[in-house]
Amino acid sequence: MADQDLDRIREFAKTLRVPHGTRVKLPRDYDPDDTQGLKEKDAAELLSRGIELLSDYQARLAAQDTQALLVIIQAIDAAGKDGTIRHVMSGVNPQGVRVSPFKVPSAEEMDHDFMWRYQKALPARGMIGIFNRSYYEELLVVRVHPSILDGQKLPPDRKNTGIWTRRFRQINDWEAYLVDQGTTIVKLFLNLSKEEQRRRFLARIDEPDKNWKFSAADVKERAHWDAYQAAFGDVLSRSSTAAAPWHVIPADNKWFARLAAAGIIADALIRMDPQFPEVSGEARDALLAARVELLAEDPGARSLASGRSGPDDGDGKGRKASAKKGKGRRKGK
Ligand code: AMP
Ligand code: MG
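^ thats the input. predicted complex w/ magnesium ion below
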């Protein structure tokens, strides 16, 4: 990819990033309908180029096997988390990606510290991990509904008023530790407007194919809209660190949200700059020795070497087969 394309992706991602220390108030500070002057008709081409780039970098990340990428996606209901993941990751080798959706914690998960289930799902070196919801729910749904905190099995004296400040500190410290260990963290907030959520909920009710996506509980959650906006604003204000910044993606237009997510993830991979490992002199010698052995197995080459008449002796096929080695190698790649 040309340097100027890489620069454009970098600039694009930067415009969506929340600088460390910014005080964010929603919906005041970010417009969910923004498209940066882009048109939907141009988006498909840009998205498919972005997806190609992701696929190329993912192969290198896996081969390098030292770094990992963790993508965290948070949003209000119907903002398009699932569709974004499906589209953005469509070109990537499934063996190199793991998507982990986080729902209401199970009894076993409740029996552990809050990070336990997320720790277990972290991407290994060489992998891309996607968290569809994450430990940030501990500062979102749990904060909006104090009854959830009441139900957590923490010792009662740990549920005192400093709990949110401590959770922010614990999360920021944990992320800094992961970054230091070689995991790049990209955090995406899909920013939907209340009106667009209303329209999408109505579509989920009116279109039979979408009924499965809707639950009456979603409308109950919507009644807490302002509390969620405040909680998201606080998350963006207090956990967009230099090590693991948040990005606010305008999500009222699905095509733009997908393009933006692909651009931000591509930008992270470009900055990680994974490389195919270089083969050492010794390993290279071993490869060449193996090549000689494999060539010697060629039935045509063997009959020629032994001086006996082979089945294809006389018509030159054996010779041709060994002369085609270049083609064979490409095919096997
Ligand atoms: P969905 O992603 O729409 O299937 O919904 C998953 C539900 O699980 C949402 O209502 C989340 O708020 C809820 N959830 C996710 N993580 C937690 C958590 N740590 N504590 C309580 N509820 C959670
Ligand atoms: Mg839901």
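Residues 139 and 235 are 7 Å apart (CA to CA).
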